[in-house]
Amino acid sequence: MKLIIATIKPFKLEEVREALTGIGVRGMMVTEIKGFGSQSGHTEIYRGAEYAVNFVPKIKLEIVVSSAMADQVVETIKSTAQTGKIGDGKIFVLDVSQAVRVRTGETDADAL
User: Fold this and answer.
1) What average pLDDT does the segment 85-89 reach?
2) CA–CA dist 88, 38 (Å, integer)
3) The overall pTM is greater than 0.90
4) Whole-angstrom Cα distance, residue 75 to residue 93?
5) Cβ atoms of 3 and 29 closer than 8 Å
6) What is the span of the domain harbouring residue 18?
7) What CA–CA distance (Å, rounded) separates 47 from 27?
8) I need a surface site. Which of 8, 36, 48, 65 has the fewest CB within 10 A?
9) pLDDT category, 81, cuts 50, 70, 90?
10) How many domains does the chain have?
11) How far apart are the first and last CA of the chain?
């Protein structure tokens, strides 16, 4: 099993969710986060005053899938979330050693 952690732009969330559901992803966790990468934030003007925005709003997706499905999920997120502009996000893939469904006690692939 693989844990896929992706950060994407907030306005891409629904499009990515629909694309992932379309390839068979049955669940994901979504968190609103703030962060910065290469762009190191930006400046905005509010009520005539310029100020620095050091942390940019992002969405973090956490998805656990079978190892066989991981590459397809990564490719789907990459192609759907991409705008071609700085700050499109990152995708990380980690190994998952165990999963348990709390309600039924099912483990590993059955728990997904």
Assistant:
1) 87
2) 11
3) no
4) 12
5) no
6) 2-111
7) 41
8) 48
9) very high
10) 1
11) 9
